[in-house]
Amino acid sequence: MELLVFGHAGAKVLVFPTREGRFYDYENFGLVDALREPLDGGYIRLFCVDGVDSESLYCKSAPPWARVERHRQYERYILDEVIPFMRAENGVPSLVVHGCSIGAYHAMSLALRHPSLFCKVVALSGRYDLTRQFGHFEDLFGGHYDREVYFITPNHFLPNLEDPDYLDPIRRMDITLAVGEQDPFHESNRALSEALGEKGVVHRFAIWPGEAHRARYWREMVRHYL
Fold first, then answer.
1. What is the CATH classification number for the domain harbouring 103?
2. Is the pLDDT assigned to residue 196 strictly greater than 70?
């Protein structure tokens, strides 16, 4: 799979694309230019990966179990290939994970499922419950629900986490949720924020005016939070 790398030094940032997006969208949306100063200054390095959402979460022609399995294969690609590549490319130990829209879901889900790998999460305009309809955004699995769906849905598995050895790395992460007050996924963000708070996870929950689910808002958000 293809990816793009921007920057020469600094904290390594794993960047997921938006819904059914590509590895070059982050640059095309103007988000790389929005981060030009920290990139040129050697503070961050972006690793923009490709996605398989059209083969997994959004592949309506496949049964839910097959879509979840494809999603899990993608996760293994990130864990087994991309993250080792990132570490080999740059000796700085800190790993950040980031995304916008469904990319924010990927970022948050990965960080909460593998919290020892990351020091920071920046999730913008994300959706953290795949099983509910939000406005015109339908339940991605058409009413199907099983333990595999549960374990890839942050708003479901996070409230039930109790193991301190698992929760402590989450509590050490710098976590930012940012969403528009009129975004259809605002409720999903608030539910995740409340679950984090109940688990003693200090985090930032930033509410932006309007829907704020567009690249022009994300360009401003990344300057604040990344």
1. 3.40.50.1820
2. yes
